[in-house]
Amino acid sequence: MAPPAAEPRTASEAASAAHGSDVEDPFGNPHYVRFVADLLGAIAYAELSGFERLSSDARFSPSLADRASLGRLAVQEFEHFELVGRFLDGLGITVEDAMTPFCASIDSFHERTRPGDWYESLMKAYVVDAFSRDFYRSLAHNLDARTRELIAVIDSGDGAEHLRDRLKEALADDPRLASRCALWGRRLVGEALTQAQRVGIERENLAGLLFAGEDGPARPSGTFFSELTRNHSRRMSALGLTA
């Protein structure tokens, strides 16, 4: 009889094993559970913060239609938060415990990127929410099927399209606003990249996911962040702005 396979001992090893078709229950591995809990904790707090931010920003909308639209997006963020919470409950982990390590860092990010007006709020939602979804999606390929499905649901909202269309409308006839939003977008993505790097440094469990390739081997950190930057540039181009 062949000896049993050694249990993966690092986040990247556990992720690679979980992605393999021969793994029936990756959640039997405590290393895997720990870094999935870290990832979902970060996502949960980001979604909860997004709900609070959009709810607050909606009050300053220039029209009732804009106010209702941001309200719908806020509800979507809270629904995502609840989905993640239920998933974590199934793992025997409270969403509060999973979120706690990320509260200070995410709160600090939002303090550094406090919008000056409604248009900067809209731009922040467009840039940061899309960046976050790129970030989650890029990690999901090394996760088990159930966690990948959860992240796919979070990524499936139509908020980015609505924000893009509303921003294009606002920027089309106002070159000064377009210039200001282009500069704001550059600052936002710079802060978002710094935040993503900080997460990888502070949470060793997530670092294995950040830089694991699709088949397990590590990929350079520069490659990972270059992908995120290219996606951001495409989104800015869709607004007629230079990244």
Description:
There is one protein chain. The protein is an all-alpha fold. The protein has one domain: Ferritin, CATH 1.20.1260.10. It has ten helices and no strands. The chain has helices at 11-19, 30-58, 64-90, 95-112, 118-140, 145-154, 159-172, 175-202, 204-210, 221-238. Helix 5 (118-140) crosses helix 10. The longest helix is centred in the first third of the chain and has 29 residues, at 30-58. The protein starts with 10 loop residues before the first helix and ends in a 5-residue tail after the last helix. The relative contact order is 0.15. Residues 1-8 and 213-220 have low confidence and may be disordered. Residues 31-211 form the Ferritin-like domain. This is Ferritin-like domain-containing protein.
Count the beta strands. Answer: 0
Q: Helix coverage percent of residues? A: over 70%
How many helix segments? 10
By CATH, the architecture is named: Up-down Bundle
CATH fold name, please? Ferritin
Could you describe the largest sheet, including whether it forms a barrel?
none
**Over all CA atoms, what is the radius of gyration?**
19 Å
Shape: globular
Query: What's the CATH class, please?
Result: Mainly Alpha
What does the secondary structure layout of this molecule look like, with pairings?
Layout lengths: L10 H9 L10 H29 L5 H27 L4 H18 L5 H23 L4 H10 L4 H14 L2 H28 L1 H7 L10 H18 L5
Helix pairs in contact: 1-9, 2-3, 2-4, 2-5, 2-9, 4-8, 5-6, 5-7, 5-8, 5-10, 8-9, 8-10
